[in-house]
Amino acid sequence: LMKAGRIPALITSDLTTKKYRSALMAYYVKAILLNKERDFPDKRVWLFFDELKELCENESDPATKAIGSVAARGRIKDVGLGYATQFYEKIPDSVKGAKLNYCFCFQTSAERANLIAREFDLNKFMKEKILVLKQFECLAMTRNKFRYYKGDEVWEDSKPVIGKILFPLSDHRKAGEKV
């Protein structure tokens, strides 16, 4: 599929009760890492996981080990990792230990805000801002730089920024409902 210019999406919700779920996902991740240079030598490949905690429940899971190897060494092969979770503190250290480059945080608990603030060196104001973000607002943080555009002006900055998510990317309301 990828050679044909298509993006495969593996829906794993029907695998949640299967014993082989973690091993199967580990196989897919390893296959992508092993074959990326041969099949896509000049392409960047991204692996995105929604609700990663459901797949990486502990350090001994095969999927955790495979995804952890992407987090730690994927950049060498130009393979990136992106994931979403409501339980950042439950992601195994081998996966988040490679240090995230970007984080988009919505309103969350004080415990999670403290953890994220430590990992991204946020000041007290930004840490407290996480606790009171409004619906559709998020705090974007990076270890690199964000690129900003305003008219013809373009600049880069590494400071955290508060923004709103684009409505079509949110399932908080049905399309057509007023915000």
Polypeptide structure, described:
The chain has five helices and seven strands, in the order αβαβαβααββββ. It starts with 20 loop residues before the first helix and ends in a 15-residue tail after the last strand. The mean pLDDT is 83. Strand 1 (45-50), helix 2 (62-73) and strand 2 form a beta-alpha-beta unit. The strands form three sheets. It has a three-stranded antiparallel β-sheet, with helices on one face. Helix 1 (21-39) packs parallel to helix 2 (62-73) and helix 4 (110-119) runs antiparallel to helix 5. The chain is an alpha+beta fold and 179 residues long.
- What is the spatial order of strands in the main beta sheet? 3-4-7
Beta-strand content: 15-25%
Q: What's the total count of β strands?
A: 7
Distance between the termini: 37 Å
Structural class: alpha+beta
Low-confidence stretches: none
Radius of gyration: 18 Å
Mean pLDDT: 83
Helix content: 25-40%
- The topology string of helices and strands comes to HEHEHEHHEEEE
Overall geometry comes to globular
Instruction: Describe the largest sheet.
Output: 3 strands, antiparallel
How many individual helices? Answer: 5
Short description:
It is built from five helices and seven strands; from the N terminus they run αβαβαβααββββ. It is an alpha+beta fold and 179 residues long. It starts with 20 loop residues before the first helix and ends in a 15-residue tail after the last strand.
